[in-house]
Structure formats: C-alpha cells, structure tokens
Amino acid sequence: MSKSVVAAFTISALLGACTNTYIYDLRRDDQLPRDRTLTLEGEFCTPSPNEVVRPIKIVIAMDASQSMKVTDPNGSRAQAALDLIDSLPQEPEISFVVLLFAGSTSAWLSKSGEDEFDRVIDFSPAERNLLRQRILNFTAPGGGANRDSTDFVKPLSDIYALINEDIALTRLMQMNDETRARYSVIFLSDGQPTTNQDDELLCGDAVRRIRQLRDLADDVRVNTVHVFTPTQPIASTACSFDAGVTIPVAGAVCGIPELPPGACPLLVVNNNAERLNQMATLGGGDFRDFRNNEPINFLNFRFGQVRRTFIFDKLIASNHSAPPGSPLELADTDSDGLLDEQELEEGTLPWVADTDGDGFSDGVEVYFRARGANFTPDQEPLPDGGGVDPGCPPELRGVDSDCDTLTDCDEQIIGTNSRRIDSDDDGVPDSVEFKLGSQPSSKDLPQDPDNDRVPTGDELSMHMDPLVPDSDDLSVTGYRYDVKKKAGLEPDGRQCWTFKISNVAMANTLPDTRDATNPDGGEPLYRRGAGYNDLFVTFSMTPGDDPTGRTILRTYRHTSSRFPVGGIKSPHDGIINIKADDFVAGCQSVVQPSTP
C-alpha cells in the first residue's frame, strides 16, 4: 500500500473519530447540573472634591521659658505663628490653637482660654494682633521656683489630651463615624529641658502616643522646630571639639548623651537640635532648624488639603458564605469563618455566628483556640469548673462599628481597628483578609506564602486561598473582573467606572430551623431559608495628594441571592445590578430574607 493511501486512511479515521464523539460525565449518575454562579455588574464613582471634606487642625506649641529670651530675643516665633495663620485658607474646616509652656505651666491662647480649637475664619485682624502680644508678653504665673524652667513632657501630655478629646467629641457629633480630621503639631523650643527627660521623650511614649492617635483620625503628626538665634555669637574657642562625647546620629540610639560641664556651647546646641529632630521622627513629622538669625517660619510644614480628590485603587468582591475556591460541597451559612461541617464537629449552631453569646464569633474562637488561646465556642462548663471563657464586654457584643462584617469583639482579638473597614490601608477589607487567610493588620498583598506564583492580593480578589497552591484552579473557580474607566467626569466632578465581576459561585447554605413552626399547620416556616448567600463588595480609593495616605472604602452588601436549592437560582439570570449610589461610606441596613 502506498504511503499516500495510508495517510489518507489515517486522516479519515481521525476525522471520523472526532465528529460525533460524546464524553460522558460520571457526575450525572448522582448529581444534576447546577448553575450556581452570579455576575455582579454596574458602576461606582469616586467622590467629588466637595464631597469628602477633611478638617485640618493645627496645634502651635511654643516654649515660653526664660531661655527663649536669649535664643529668640526678637520674638520672631510669634510673627511666624501669625504668618502661618495668615497663610491658611479661609475655610471653616481649618482651625488652630496656640499653646505656650514654661515650667509646669501650660497656657492655651484660645478665645476661651481653654484647651480647644478656634476656626481661622473666626479671627479678626484685631484678635490676631492681640494673639501676637499675648505670645510675646507671656510670663509664667505664680512664684514657683520652676516658673522659668523648661519641661517637654507636660505640654506633650496636654497636647495628647486635647487631640484625644477632640477626636472623641467629633465622633460623638458624627454618630460614632470615624473622624477624618488631620492633626498637625508644631513644637518649638531651644531644645533642652531643665532636667533630662530623654527617657520619656525619646525612649518612652511622650511623643509616640500622640502619633498613635492617627489610628482614630485621618492622621496625627508631630513636627518640631529648633530655634537658636541669639544676638551675640556663642564663644567656642575655649572648647575641645567633641568634649570626649560621640554625637549620636538621628535614629541610631535612644536618648542624647549628656555633655560634661564646660563642654563646648556649640555641641550643646547641636545636641538640643538633635533631640527635637528625633522627636519629629517619632511623631511622623518634619524637623526645622533655625540658627544664625534666620527668620523663623512654619510655612514649609505639610498640613494637607481640606478638599481632596481620591483615586480608585481596588475593587473586591467576596462571598462570605463560601470558603476560598468556592467548593460545591462546603458552605458557611452564618458567615462566621467556620464551615458548616466544622460547626457540627464543634457542637455550635451553623446559622448563628456566636453560638454561646459571649461576643466572639464561633470562627474566631476556634481559630485562636487552635493557636493556644482559651476559647470555648459552645461555653459548656467542664466538670472541674473550666471550659468557660470570660467573653467580650457586654456593651460591645453584637456591635460592628465599621460595618465590615467583623464585630468589634472579634476585631479586638484579631488585632484590627474596629472603627476602620481596612485597618492596614491596603485596599482590602479586614473581613475579607481574615476569612480568606491573609493578614488584615499588615500589608502582605505582594507576598506569596503558598509559592504558587500568584500574589496574595490577586488571590483575595479572585476569592482563592492565599495559603494553598491553587493556581491551576484559577481559570475555573476564580472570580473574573472587568473594570473600565468612563470617559470624562460627571457634572459634579466625580469619576465613574463600570465593572463586571463574573463567576461568583454561591454556596449551598443551610436553613435556619430554630423554632420552625407554622401557625397554619403547613410546612415549617424557617427564620431563613436554605441557599441564601452573603455577598460583600467594596472599592477602595487613595488620596490624590498622598498616595501612601489612608484609604477610604465604599461598601455594598447583598443577601437575597440564592443557591439553586430547587434547581433554579435567584435571581434566575444570575445578574445583580449595582448602582453607584448603592455603595455607601458607612453602614447600610441589611434585610435578611425569611422565607424558605
């Protein structure tokens, strides 16, 4: 037989084999095909510059002790304060207060004389001139021996109390919403407390705790200013160059080495400047040094803008009812992070997030119990009296201040901020990170702990497990995103985007059968029928003027979609349309479906 005939026969056989072939799916023997996926589509918009207004609050704290008459004899610090006030935009959201400190005395130069902020627009030219005179003519009251001494810890403590109270009052007026105010402190001195306070200033928390208040506000920064502008130059010819003391490098050591008596005055000045420099580093602010009659000014400090533009960062969808990868046989009916089959093993209720009512969800208790914590999700006492944990404070139980689907009690244990949806500012909500297995309190999105060559951030967005190599399953089970920027801006200045998130698989959740009765004698009426899923969608934004600044998020929650329990899913076409206004900045009411 010729080669051409063999080739023709082979080709015809192959073609015949490929035509009417039917590959039988063995799952058809015991499973019906189910379409359980959803598609989320719609649009979202970044806020207009006038929609998100950030208050700017400035504390100008200046040393008024006797030594300042030598280091700033012309009182240029007072003019610097007025120049700063004059340079600030005349906006109702900008306010300030001046604090003078000498010895153990702190004097607030507000209109009321109390520790409170005044708005810039409320100061007339006459009041500004009066403020200048009060700064220059201030004398510490009383006849105490320390009235002309220098103390840094006391005024820093007063500043902490002022900002902390202002944050609390702002929250109260905003119905517990997180304040967006940015606080900036300008701390001016010649840099040397009368007694060495470096243990508290540089090694302790005198400055650090002010900076830590940024967790409760948009930002809190401590800037420092060193002033040494005497009318006569200091004598340095009789000094040894280094006085036998190694001058520290900023940030290299904790504390400033004390110079021996008679050391070169220039070295003393340098040490004082270095102390304030390290304080600024701890406070997250900037340091300025004014010497040799250089005019003092505060104009180069960064205070931020009241009205800001925000840039879209991430769009994240997550089904809290389905574990990572959305396997068909697994579900988390109560979205507590503990699968239904695990709840049966633990003896907890699969439709109640906190079975024992102690404030901590079942998933959090089991997770941390496995890591050595003393948690009992079912609160059943043991014969020896143990087995019962103290639980969360009663006033916090069931509270979710930031509406990120993690309760305040849970966030205390997890280590996240209960008043911020995204504690680590990486654009992903705390609840998504915790329930899918990443770190909600640290920026770990670029990492790849499972070495599957898919970064954690990508796995979270696709609803996959960042701790399990599952890259082979991405094309089958991963969420799929299509986000497009709309041309031009909206009339109100918003930038809008259209999006489509497909392949969002639902889980076969359980019905809530507690007290299942029917007054009409028919089938039992459940509190919540089987198959309902809890979807959580967010988009995050970063400030246009500070890409590394605090993120803000808008959220959308959907609980009425249903797994095809009877063969038909809800909605039947699997499409959920989301309007831009459906994304909210705070909490939104969620109506739980109650019919089976």
From TrEMBL:
Entries under CDD domains matching the protein: vWFA
Task: Report the superkingdom from the record.
Answer: Bacteria
Q: Which SUPFAM superfamilies match?
A: vWA-like (SSF53300)
Give me the ranges of the annotated region Disordered: 415-471
Which residues belong to any copy of the VWFA domain? 57-227
| Regions of compositional bias (Basic and acidic residues) in chain numbering | 450-462
Q: Could you identify this protein by its name?
A: VWFA domain-containing protein
